[in-house]
User: Which sequence fits this backbone?
């Protein structure tokens, strides 16, 4: 195995070319129970984290928003309500099972929204067209986060904002309790509800392998994003990074 092309899939080291397939297997497996699992695992807190992200977006009526790795569409729906008839939201995801659920849900809620299946690391959009790009709990799963962030920057208009909501590194004194919850309890809930403990073990492991708050900030700066700042939520269980393209 060529070490140069290795990356993490949770705690495993895998070839970069295999990670995308393994991540796809996770989301194919959990798609039908994804929303219920989010509510159960976070005791509904993910709704507040997402609401906070939308509040920090500065998005107003008429804006054009790109939801990257948008999955079942929580953020797209929130933004569709904000931008109104004169704005536009685009829901994207690499995974067809997740994207289909998201697109159908938006339709059912009265917000028919264009949806595109695409890899965040190579976006099929022109430069400089979105006022806001959001990626919520998606970046952690991407193989080349730098390439994905560079793509997000490319499609933003000058002055546009990027928001990245993601699990992050928890305040140290809480780590033992958080570890117990994420490695012992979450896979059990995953087994019970989604009949899939390994995918939820991957969730816990991938969080540990994701760059911490400062490292992600540096990564964003390294692709040319500016005025990068972050907000810790729930003692750093989750962090919202916000950055601009100028
Ligand atoms: N954004 C939604 C939310 O906050 O509930 C869904 C997040 S879900 C945990 C992660 C999503 O990232 C999955 O739908 C998965 O298919 C998507 N994903 C993973 N790798 C991706 C990539 N390289 N490009 C686009 N989407 C990706």
Assistant:
């Amino acid at each position: 195995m060529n070490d140069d092309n290795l990356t993490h899939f949770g705690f495993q080291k895998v070839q970069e070319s295999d990670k995308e397939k393994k991540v796809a297997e996770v989301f194919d497996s959990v798609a039908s129970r994804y929303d219920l699992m989010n509510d159960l695992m976070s005791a509904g807190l993910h709704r507040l984290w997402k609401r906070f992200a939308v509040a920090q977006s500065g998005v107003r009526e008429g804006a054009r928003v790109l939801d990257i790795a948008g999955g079942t569409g929580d953020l797209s729906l929130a933004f569709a309500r904000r931008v109104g008839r004169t704005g536009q939201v685009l829901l994207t995801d690499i995974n067809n099972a997740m994207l289909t659920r998201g697109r159908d849900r938006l339709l059912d809620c009265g917000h028919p929204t264009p949806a595109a299946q695409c890899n965040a690391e190579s976006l099929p959009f022109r430069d400089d067209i979105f006022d806001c790009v959001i990626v919520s709990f998606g970046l952690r799963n991407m193989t080349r986060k730098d390439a994905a962030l560079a793509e997000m920057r490319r499609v933003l208009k000058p002055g546009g904002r990027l928001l990245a909501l993601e699990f992050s590194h928890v305040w140290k004194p809480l780590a033992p309790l958080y570890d117990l919850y994420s490695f012992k309890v979450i896979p059990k809930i995953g087994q019970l509800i989604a009949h899939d403990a390994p995918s939820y073990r991957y969730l816990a492991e991938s969080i540990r392998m994701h760059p911490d708050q400062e490292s992600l900030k540096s990564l964003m700066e390294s692709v040319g994003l500016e005025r990068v700042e972050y907000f810790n939520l729930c003692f750093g269980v989750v962090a919202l990074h916000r950055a601009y393209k100028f």
